[in-house]
Design goal:
By secondary structure, the chain is mostly beta strands. It folds into two domains: 134 residues, Lipocalin (Beta Barrel), CATH 2.40.128.270; 87 residues. It is 8% helix and 50% strand. The protein has two helices and 19 strands. The strands form two sheets. It has a nine-stranded antiparallel β-sheet, with no helix packed on it. It has an eight-stranded antiparallel barrel with strand order 11-13-14-15-16-17-18-19. The two termini are 28 Å apart.
Length: 236
Amino acid sequence: MIRAALPVASVLALAACAPTPETPRKSPGEQPAAYMALGTEPGWTLEITPSRLNYDGDYGETKIMVPNPGAQPSMNGRTYAADRLSVVIKTAPCSDGMSDRRFADTVRVVADGKTLQGCGGKILPPNTLAGSSWNFVSIGGVAVAKDRPTSLQFDGSRLSGSAGCNRFSGGYSAADGNLTVGPLMATEMACPGPGMTQEAGFFKLIAAPVSLTFADDGTLILTGSEGRTAVLKRVI
């Protein structure tokens, strides 16, 4: 592949001929209906809904489902006490131990007398973008095509990836809640279908500095001056 300075005008012209993919049914970053917590070694998950506590432990071998007894206030958090299962949630940053993901809460679960530690609540923003990897969820409010692999990696002061067609790379800086990208280099390949459209939308978005925000589920949202967005979900 020939690598050249990104021909934005050409990309936009080709994109005009591509069909527009369907609008997603759910908004990226939409809050979950239940509180979720997890732990490792052994792996476990906990779901707290208004009516039930659903615990899945020992990598799926232990399952406990009990009525939600209601939360009781405790020091810097809340507790749930039910037969076979009790939960203590404290508002304190927590790492899942398997990656650099951080959560808002530290969670202790006692399941059938066995005490486990883990994390829960919203996913906190990373301390730095460097070393993180993401996949696109939507660009310009439109869900990315499922048959077009996408990615965005931040490595030191450079980024690379694909918005659905060409591979691109370039420098970036992130400060004060803003991301500035470029100049970019990209392969020059025309892609059939929506891949070209979504790529053109992303290149247009990051032609100028964009704001960086994070939803409670850890979703990364890039917002341009005209309100257009690119939404990404973290991989690592």
